[in-house]
Amino acid sequence: MGVDRMRTRAWAVAGLAVALSGCITEGRGVRDRGAGGLFGKAELVKRPVSPRCLKYGKGSARAACDEAQELAQRYVRGLSTADLVCLEGGFGDPPAGSCLARATVSDAGNGQLLLDIREAQPSSRWFNHVSSEVWFEDGALVDLYLAERGY
Predict the structure, then answer these.
(1) What integer is the mean pLDDT of 116-132?
(2) Which distant-in-sequence residues (6+ apart) come within 8 Å of 42 by Cβ?
(3) pLDDT tens digits for 76-113?
(4) Angle of helix 60-78 relative to helix 138-148, nearest 10 degrees?
């Protein structure tokens, strides 16, 4: 009877150890990419329905806009994780003193980039989004590039 009792206790201890091992987690919180806050998803900035250059019709203004759009597409497609970007006040240029909002590319999806907004000046539209992640469709970033260049 003593041997059976020891076996039962051994099985109980082993079962308890297995059960508790599922409760042990890493001390640092694991951050789900693109999770905006505790329970939500990150905001998604969609591309405009109508491309910005269409409003110029045909002519030299349209050709200049199309050229800028091509440069913007190359720039956006060339971005990868850990790249620093100026989100306002110079998108497409390295973040400099005139940059109102700085971000880092956190992740890349199919036709989208996840930007982690690191810092923003109080006058920036991104000021209330500091420390947030925002998904941008590629077309939204291209549109931002064009808008900042006056198109």
Answers:
(1) 96
(2) 34, 35, 36, 114, 132, 133, 134, 135
(3) 999 999 999 999 999 999 889 899 999 999 999 999 99
(4) 130
| Nearest alpha-carbon partner for 143 in 97, 87, 96 | 87
**Residue of 61, 71, 66, 111 whose CA lies nearest to 91:** 71
Claim: this prediction has a pTM higher than 0.85: no
Name the CA radius of gyration of the chain, rounded: 25
Coil, helix or strand at residue 39: coil
Nearest to residue 69, comparing CAs of 85, 88, 84, 47? 47
For 98-141, the DSSP string reads T-SEEEEEEEEETTEEEEEEEEE-TTSTTGGGTT-EEEEEHHHH
